[in-house]
Every structure is written in structure tokens, then in C-alpha cells.
Design goal:
CATH topology of the largest domain: 434 Repressor (Amino-terminal Domain)
CATH architecture of the largest domain: Orthogonal Bundle
Helix content: 55-70%
CATH class of the largest domain: Mainly Alpha
Order of helices and strands: HHHHHH
Shape: elongated
Distance between the termini: 30 Å
Number of strands: 0
CATH superfamily of the largest domain: lambda repressor-like DNA-binding domains
Largest sheet: none
Number of domains: 2
Length: about 110
């Protein structure tokens, strides 16, 4: 979810003016849980981090962003795909779907 949940939680807690014990009390967990996360000894599950941030009055927002793929093997296939008719594109998509379904069974 995030690169450094320990720093995120520590910043949220401090900005809320809370001690680790106060944050833990609001979140219904032990102070040692907050301490282990903030010190980087453990990485919390996304739900745990969201609950702790909410207890401090914050929320983490994430979004999907495409990565730049400059030398992808798929880019070389774009011209071929664009030359296909819509029917051929659907047929190719169906073939891919069957392949993925079969691969999941293995």
C-alpha cells in the first residue's frame, strides 16, 4: 500500500498530538502494536494501518498509475493489433481468456 507505513503512522500520530498509548486506545489495540509499527519492526496489514490512521483522524489515499514501460515486448505488438478487424481483436481476446483460464488450472 505504502512505501513506509512506519513514518506515515508516526507522522499522523504526531500531527494529531497523540501519544502511542492514546492512539492505541482510540484504535482498540495495544501500545506495543503502535510502537512496533512505528519502529519498523513489523509491517501492518492495510486494514490495520487504515484503522490506526483513522483513529488519528487521517486516511491514506492510494491510486493506480500506469508505469512507464519503455522497452516492453508488448509495445512491438501494437501495430499488429491495430491492423486487426474488431472481430479479429475479439477472437484474439477470447483466445487469451481461454489460455489464462487453462493456465490457472495447472
Amino acid at each position: 500500500m505504502l512505501d513506509d507505513p512506519s513514518a506515515l503512522l508516526r507522522t499522523a500520530r504526531r500531527r494529531a498530538g497523540l501519544t502511542q498509548r492514546e492512539l492505541a486506545g482510540r484504535a482498540g489495540t495495544a501500545q506495543s502494536v503502535v510502537s512496533r509499527i512505528e519502529s519498523g519492526q513489523t509491517n501492518p496489514a492495510a486494514g490495520t494501518l487504515a484503522r490506526l490512521l483513522a483513529a488519528a483522524g487521517f486516511e491514506a489515499r492510494t491510486e493506480l498509475a500506469p508505469l512507464s514501460v519503455p522497452m516492453s515486448h508488448m509495445l512491438s505488438d501494437v501495430e499488429r493489433i491495430l491492423r486487426l478487424t474488431p472481430e479479429d481483436r475479439l477472437r484474439e481476446l477470447g483466445n487469451l481468456d481461454r489460455f489464462v483460464t487453462a493456465a490457472r488450472r495447472v
